[in-house]
Structures are given as structure tokens and as C-alpha cells.
Design the sequence.
């Protein structure tokens, strides 16, 4: 360690109207895992693209292994041994592991492709270098997300020339038990002397595996932290947002809880067994569970996106018939979906068009739109939720994750909904917006709404909810008061390490 | 950007901003230069009148493309509209209005069938309307014993006027097309239903989660589009005093082209009514202009294709430049 693997210094990069990078610097030393953190829009992706030679900066130097690249181009950066593991997988589902690893870099034998040799090489590399024991003949579509990620890594590194590997949000689509697979692979790469730049929103991962961390804010390097430990997260957050978010979660108000939503013997007949739960008015109930626990299917079925087999849903004693999402919305039950870019928003529509999508009648006369009224209504929501840019005509696609989530929220807040389901409310949302969304959830409950928060993030559930129900393998296995348990208890319950009974008895 | 390149940039900017309009104008000038007859009032009216049927079909197509699908059976709806109207007059002695209603109902049956396939059986619009096209074509052949036309020489004058009459000097078919354009514009671009249609066309799953009743919209759109195409069928039948089986098919590709020219013209690539109108008129102008240039029938299609590709490429570049 000690020698520079790559160094970017004095980098300035401008786009029309925005200075994305402003005299930024980033240095990764040989043999270290280096974290790069910052809120959305801090310049992380831009700096990676500068390193990759995709963007040419207006000013600054790119040095790899002590050699100045002027200019850096995708070809000479690759030749210098820098490899990029992009967030998206870009794998063909119907290809085998071997075909995927060697796509575009096939090896030839005397009789066409050296298939056997490639399969051996792919399997050996995945096993020895990344710690994944998998047959080269498996199809990509049969692999888990974490395994696919490792295939993507193998594809970038199989030529053996890699000296630096850049991971861009490698764990974003992964469930928490899958994260360990990727983390293990990164540790192995480090042990083999490869320098790693690790970009992630998940500070717990950063503090787990990184030796040093660089923090970006508004296009500038605001700090480089050595001696990273589990306690460094607070310092990193402070550097990222420029203020102290000691209380990510708002204090739980003294709310009067009264009868609200009652779900009885509710099942889709496939992915989750009949379950019964209630959510009072003014109450926030969390649903914990891993991918595959039936949590997502339950939420979708409750909202009418999937067909229910049996069970009853009532609100204030009156039955709700919900077989389609449209009926759910008209019954005052709304969903903030987990995949907001796919299910939450029409990305190519403007903010105003998205916000008013569920309340079109309110801003129309005899079916004809009153665009001024719609714009005004949107502007009020944009201001009260602090959506940026504060422009109702902005295209939703161009907003950051946190602001997109606020647009979804703004739409439902415009309705007279009384039951709110949040499915993974803060995935891909930066720290600042996260706190604001938690605040909003608390306010909704304070105003007497029934709130369900379904999440794979135990910290979030423990921090926001009053009560948490746990689902494992398609069954609701118990419920706990959030105050009475720790985050570790919750993890233990969702992973099945200990039963809900044991946890309740212990606390 | 340095000063030296400023004029070039300005030129590029102008071309990008007004790209398609420039192409439109350039062709207009070219045709006018080649054959002055092109710009005479009578010929321009010919273009408008000759585009009416395509215009009406393209409106229906725009509606379906806006929902995120495509309708390959618009020609069948046209044929059914014509057939029902002609048979209603010839065999059942209905007056012109009854016949027109029968035609629209006949076309709507095609739309209902499409809706059944797409909404009920969850078949993709492309394959569903392709099936409708095959079935509808065969039904016409069976009904006419192999595809012979059904003529009706004593067609009521009022019905004939749908194609041959005029309103204050403007051909009726152009007036009908114009009225439909206005209705479609209001519904698709200015009403809350249009907003919902666009939303589901751009991102169906998000529209569903937002509480939009996408199935109901799909059914209504398929029926409305087919009914609209049936009106084009009425005009076609009135024009030649007969129902000619399978005549609607020839409009299909032009209608698709017009809709996608229109979408390319939109700043965000949405199918839209003003764009479709531009597309139809452009296709009408090019066909008419090439005709007047006396070009060989075989080269005409090739030229039309080349013109289409260049215009679309320009429109795409234009949108890219505008959106940064």
C-alpha cells in the first residue's frame, strides 16, 4: 500500500448550466478498498466517467499508476488496467455463464471457439478469484442477482490485466443476505492486490469494507477519511450533507390510535399464506421480510395489482372491495411502489403531469383540463415538499431519486387518501431526502392516516414504525413493538436466526 | 464555443429548430418550381381532399399508438364501415343517416373484437389486430363470394354527398376530416382522458398504480378508433357508389408513417394530433408532387421512403438537440 493506483486532481467538468465537478480530486492507493460517497448529484457518477475517459474535463489531470493520461480515453484507461463494474448488469438472460464472461472476448482454439477451455477458465476464475462455485453451463436467468453481479465482475476481469476496479453501487438491487456474497468477492480481490473504488449509498457497507473514504459534495471533494470504523458513519453523513443529521428519524409523536384498517385471512393462494393484521388510524405498521418472504406480493395483492384468493379488508368497519388499483385509489388506499421509476412515475412526463395524474378531475371542467389550475396545485405541493428543481414543468426522468419519490408522494397527498402503503420508501434516495420522507410519514400518521411501511431496511423499520410484523417464507410469523426491540433483533427475526417469540421474551 | 464557429452553429441551430418545417417548405418549393400547377389553388385543394380518408384513419391510429399499442386492422374497420352502410341501403332500404349509423356500428364491431383480444385475452395489440386483419379479410371474401365489389347505383344523393358534396365550397370529406381532427385534438391533447391515455401509453404500470382504469380506456380507444375508421369507409363507399372488399389495407402503412412522423415532430416524442396532421399532409404533398413531376410509379415509392427516412432522422436529431 502507499503507492498511487490512480489519481484525479483539479478536475472541473461543466454541463450547460451546471458545474458538475469543481476542482475535485480523488486518489486511490494500490491495494486498498476506497469508498466514494456523496448525495445524489454530488458528482460521483461524473467523476467516474471522467476516470473512464467518457467525459473530457475542462481542467484537471488523470493519472493511472503514476502515468499521466492526456487525454484519458476509454481505450488507454482500459489498457492501464482500470475496470468498471457498472450498476446495470447488461447480461443476456439466455446466455450461459461462460458465454457471458467471454462475450466479446471469446478465445479461439484450432476448431473454432475453445468452448471447453473458456468454461474451465470462467469456472476457475469465479471460484478462485470471486468465491462463487457455479457451473459454466448455467443460464444467467437461473442465477440470483448477486451471482449475476459476480459474473459481470468476472467478465471485466477475466483477461487478468486489472489493477483497479471501480464498483458503482454494486449492491443496490440486492437483498441483505446477497450483499455478503458481493462483499466477500471484493475482499478476495483486495487480497490479490487489486485496488478498488467502491461507490455506494449504503454507509454500513462503506464502513465495513473500506480502508479510506472520499466524500463529495456539490462537485467538490470535501473530505478524505482514514481509519474507517463502524463509528465513522456519522462523520461521513455530516461531510456529505454539510449538516448534522443526528436524528434521521423524527420523534414518534403521541398519537391517538383508533380502529382503522383490518385485514383478515388475506391470501393470494400462492406466495403468502392467509394472514391477519390491523393498522390503526394514526399508527405506522412496518412489514419486515427478506426478498421471497411474500412481503412484496402481499403489498401488491392488497393494492389490487395481484389477484386475491380469499380474505377481507375493511376500513372503519366497512368492507373495502379492492380488485384493481383503481378501486384501491378510490377507496382511499394508495401505494408508493418499490420500483418508482417503473411503477411510480411516468418518467417522460413532467412533474405536474405526474403529480396531478390521480386528481385530474379536480383541475378540469367537463373533462377539459385547466392547466393553470393543475400547475398551481402542483406548485403548492412542490413547495411544501421542497421538490427540486422547483419547476412543475421539469421532466420527471431528470430528477434525483429523492425528488422523484417526493413527486409520487405529492400525487397521493393531493388525494383524500386515508391509508398509505410505502413499499421500500427510501431505496435510491439520498440521506437528506430520506429524513424528509420519514418526517412526512410521521406527519401522515399524526393526521390520523393508517400507514404501512414495507421495507428490507431494518434500521428504517425500527426507526419509523410503531409496530412491526415479520414475514418469512410466505407467512406472517409474528409482530413486535418497535420500541421494545433493537435493529439486530429485527434482522434476527427476518432471517430466521431467532423466532419472534424468543425476541419478545428476551426484551 | 469559439467565435469562429458561431455562424455554423447558428445555421445548425436553425436547421434543428425548424428542421421538419424546412424540409416541408423545401419540398413544397421544389414541386412548385418543377411544375407550377402544384401551387395552384385547385391542386392544393386536391391534396387536402385526397388526404381526407388517410387523415381520418391516421386519427384512429394515433389514438391506439397513444395507448402504447398499434392497430393493423384499421383497414378492416374501413371496409366494414363501407360494407355495412352499402348493404343497409341496398338490401334494407335505410336512408343515408341510418346507413351511416349502420356503417359506424359495423366498424365498431371490429374495434370491440380487438378490445376483446387485447383486454380479455391479453394478446399484444400488434398480434391481436393482425389476427383481426386476417379474420376480417377472410370474412369479406366469404361474404362477397371471393372479393367482388357490391355496387349500389341508386345510392341516396345525401350519402353520395359525404364524398362529393361541399360545404360553402369546401369538399364535405375535408370538412368531416377537419371536424374529426378538432374532436381528436380536444380529447387527446386537452382533456383528462387524453392525459390518461398518454400516461398509460408511456408507462402502463405507472398508470395502473396511479389508479387509472387502463382496461376501460383500452376498450374505449379500440372502439372509438374503429368507429372513426368506419367513417372513412362511408366516404370511400360514397365516392365510388360501391363497397370494394379489402380496399382499406392500402392505407395502413401510410397511416402508421403519418403517426410516427407526428410523434417524431413532438418535443418528447409523443404521438399527437397536430403532428399526425402534419404527417398526413406531408405524405399527401409528396405523393401529389411526385405525381406532377411525372415520375415513374416504381421510383415513387422509393423516393417517398427516402424522403420519409431523412425527415424522420432530422426530427430525431432535432429532438435530441432540443432536449440537450
Sequence:
Amino acid at each position: 500500500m502507499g503507492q498511487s493506483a490512480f489519481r484525479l486532481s483539479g478536475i472541473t467538468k461543466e454541463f450547460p448550466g451546471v458545474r458538475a465537478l469543481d476542482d475535485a480530486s480523488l486518489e486511490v492507493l494500490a491495494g486498498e478498498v476506497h469508498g466514494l460517497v456523496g448525495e445524489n448529484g454530488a458528482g460521483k457518477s461524473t467523476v467516474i466517467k471522467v476516470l473512464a475517459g467518457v467525459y473530457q474535463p475542462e481542467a484537471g489531470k488523470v493519472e493511472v499508476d503514476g502515468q499521466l493520461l492526456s487525454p484519458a480515453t476509454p481505450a488507454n484507461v482500459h489498457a492501464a488496467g482500470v475496470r468498471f463494474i457498472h450498476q446495470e448488469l447488461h447480461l443476456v438472460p439466455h446466455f450461459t455463464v461462460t458465454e457471458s464472461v467471454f462475450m466479446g472476448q471469446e478465445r479461439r482454439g484450432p476448431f473454432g471457439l475453445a468452448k471447453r477451455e473458456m468454461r474451465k477458465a470462467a469456472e476457475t476464475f469465479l471460484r478462485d478469484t470471486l468465491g462463487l462455485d457455479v457451473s459454466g453451463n448455467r443460464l444467467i436467468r437461473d442465477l440470483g442477482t448477486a451471482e449475476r453481479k459476480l459474473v459481470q465482475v468476472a467478465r471485466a476481469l477475466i483477461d487478468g490485466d486489472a489493477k483497479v476496479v471501480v464498483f458503482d453501487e454494486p449492491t443496490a438491487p440486492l437483498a441483505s443476505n446477497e450483499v455478503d456474497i458481493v462483499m466477500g468477492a471484493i475482499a478476495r480481490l483486495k487480497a490479490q492486490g487489486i485496488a478498488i473504488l467502491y461507490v455506494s449509498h449504503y454507509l454500513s457497507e462503506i464502513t465495513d469494507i473500506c480502508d479510506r473514504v472520499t466524500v463529495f459534495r456539490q462537485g467538490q471533494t470535501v473530505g478524505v477519511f482514514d481509519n474507517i470504523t463502524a463509528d465513522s458513519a456519522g462523520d461521513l453523513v455530516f461531510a456529505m450533507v454539510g449538516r448534522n443529521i443526528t436524528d434521521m428519524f423524527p420523534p414518534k409523536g403521541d398519537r391517538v390510535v383508533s380502529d382503522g384498517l383490518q385485514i383478515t385471512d388475506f391470501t393470494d393462494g400462492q406466495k403468502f399464506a392467509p394472514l391477519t393484521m390491523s393498522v390503526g388510524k394514526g399508527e405506522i405498521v412496518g412489514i419486515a421480510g427478506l426478498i421471497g418472504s411474500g412481503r412484496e406480493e402481499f403489498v401488491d395483492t392488497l393494492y389490487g395489482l395481484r389477484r386475491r384468493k380469499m380474505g377481507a379488508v375493511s376500513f372503519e368497519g366497512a368492507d373495502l372491495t379492492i380488485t384493481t388499483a383503481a378501486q384501491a385509489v378510490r377507496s382511499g388506499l394508495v401505494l408508493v411502489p418499490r420500483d418508482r421509476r417503473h411503477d411510480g412515475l411516468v418518467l417522460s412526463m413532467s412533474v405536474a403531469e405526474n403529480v396531478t395524474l390521480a386528481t385530474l378531475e379536480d383541475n378540469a371542467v367537463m373533462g377539459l383540463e385547466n392547466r393553470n389550475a393543475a400547475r398551481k396545485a402542483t406548485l403548492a405541493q412542490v413547495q411544501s415538499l421542497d421538490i427540486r428543481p422547483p419547476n412543475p414543468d421539469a421532466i420527471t426522468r431528470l430528477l434525483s431519486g429523492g425528488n422523484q419519490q417526493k413527486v409520487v408522494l405529492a400525487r397521493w397527498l393531493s388525494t383524500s387518501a386515508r391509508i398509505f402503503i410505502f413499499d421500500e420508501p427510501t431505496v435510491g434516495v439520498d440521506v437528506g431526502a430520506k429524513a424528509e420522507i420519514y418526517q412526512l410519514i410521521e406527519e401522515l400518521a399524526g393526521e390520523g392516516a393508517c400507514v404501512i411501511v414495507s421495507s428490507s431496511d431494518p434500521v428504517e423499520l425500527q426507526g419509523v414504525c410503531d409496530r412491526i410484523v415479520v414475514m418469512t417464507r410466505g407467512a406472517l410469523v409474528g409482530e413486535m413493538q418497535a420500541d421494545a426491540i433493537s435493529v439486530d433483533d429485527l434482522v434476527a427475526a427476518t432471517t430466521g436466526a431467532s423466532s419472534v417469540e424468543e425476541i419478545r421474551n428476551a426484551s | 464555443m469559439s467565435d469562429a464557429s458561431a455562424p455554423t452553429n447558428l445555421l445548425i441551430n436553425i436547421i434543428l429548430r425548424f428542421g421538419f418545417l424546412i424540409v416541408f417548405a423545401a419540398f413544397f418549393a421544389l414541386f412548385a418550381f418543377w411544375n407550377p400547377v402544384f401551387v395552384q389553388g385547385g391542386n392544393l385543394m386536391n391534396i387536402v381532399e385526397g388526404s381526407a380518408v388517410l387523415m381520418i384513419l391516421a386519427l384512429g391510429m394515433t389514438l391506439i399508438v397513444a395507448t402504447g399499442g398499434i392497430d393493423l386492422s384499421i383497414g378492416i374497420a374501413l371496409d366494414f364501415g363501407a360494407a355495412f352502410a352499402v348493404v343497409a341501403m341496398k338490401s334494407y332500404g335505410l336512408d343515408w343517416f341510418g346507413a351511416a349509423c349502420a356503417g359506424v356500428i359495423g366498424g365498431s364491431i371490429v374495434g370491440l373484437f380487438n378490445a376483446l383480444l387485447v383486454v380479455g385475452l391479453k394478446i399484444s395489440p400488434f398480434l391481436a389486430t393482425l389476427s383481426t386483419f386476417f379474420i376480417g379479410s377472410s370474412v369479406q371474401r366469404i361474404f362477397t363470394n371471393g372479393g367482388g365489389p357490391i355496387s349500389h347505383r341508386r345510392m341516396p344523393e345525401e350519402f353520395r354527398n359525404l364524398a362529393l358534396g361541399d360545404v360553402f365550397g369546401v369538399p364535405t370529406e375535408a370538412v368531416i376530416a377537419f371536424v374529426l381532427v378538432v374532436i381528436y385534438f380536444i380529447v387527446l391533447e386537452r382533456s383528462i382522458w387524453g392525459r390518461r391515455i398518454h400516461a398509460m401509453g408511456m408507462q402502463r404500470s405507472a398508470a395502473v398504480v396511479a389508479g387509472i382504469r387502463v382496461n376501460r380506456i383500452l376498450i374505449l380507444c379500440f372502439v372509438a378508433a374503429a368507429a372513426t375508421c368506419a367513417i372513412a369507409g362511408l366516404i370511400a363507399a360514397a365516392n365510388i357508389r360501391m363497397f370494394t372488399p379489402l380496399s382499406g389495407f392500402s392505407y395502413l402503412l401510410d397511416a402508421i408513417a403519418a403517426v410516427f412522423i407526428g410523434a417524431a415532430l413532438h418535443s418528447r416524442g409523443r404521438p399527437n394530433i397536430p403532428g399526425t396532421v402534419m404527417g398526413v399532409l406531408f405524405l399527401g404533398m409528396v405523393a401529389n408532387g411526385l405525381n406532377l413531376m411525372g415520375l415513374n410509379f416504381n421510383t415513387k415509392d422509393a423516393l417517398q421512403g427516402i424522403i420519409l427516412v431523412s425527415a424522420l432522422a432530422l426530427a430525431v436529431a432535432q429532438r435530441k438537440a432540443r432536449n440537450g
User: Anything to note?
Assistant: The two ends of chain A are 46 Å apart (CA to CA). Chain A has a mean pLDDT of 89. Chain A touches chain B through 31 residues (CB under 8 Å).
